[in-house]
Amino acid sequence: xxxxxxxxxxxxxxxxxxxxxxxxxxxxxxxxxxxxxxxxxxxxxxxxxxxxxxxxxxxxxxxxxxxxxxxxxxxxxxxxxxxxxxxxxxxxxxxxxxxxxxxxxxxxxxxxxxxxxxxxxxxxxxxxxxxxxxxxxxxxxxxxxxxxxxxxxxxxxxxxxxxxxxxxxxxxxxxxxxxxxxxxxxxxxxxxxxxxxxxxxxxxxxxxxxxxxxxxxxxxxxxxxxxx
Length: 228
Hints:
By secondary structure, the chain is an alpha+beta fold.
């Protein structure tokens, strides 16, 4: 009887592992979805970190599902900095967007995401809470775009920023300072960096309402699709 019960327990455990394994794989896929960015210069594939920047990734994927990016261009290309797109069509008409997504830069930074070469981050205005659909791909390490961590305490006993030291600063004042938010990283290129390099090195000049940094030959995002 003991031997039979022992056998049954192992059989139950084995069945549990078999049932659990697909769920585990599915959970991993959900937390790291992959997309293909098809451009007029070639395809770029990237993984998105939904476990580290969940609202940002959900926002991006909603634009993907809505086919928002089809026909948009990389309208800002700076070879020593980044390539930015997703907001304007080939006639430089800005596409309508949904309300901004909540800034998740500090959360993503705490989870290990930084503005390093090949990472995707949300573009925005000077208002940290203004990111909608536009994104950029870092083509070099851009540490100055990372959010600034705020030390513990309230007030914060000592805080250093750009070579200056501040003492006894209200925590809320630092948390809400626009210049300390940085930019939210939410993904990274997994293949197609050669295409990113082509975009990075394309000749630029004036275009539409932009006086500089616009590719002379439009670099069009033909589609962004979620890879199953």
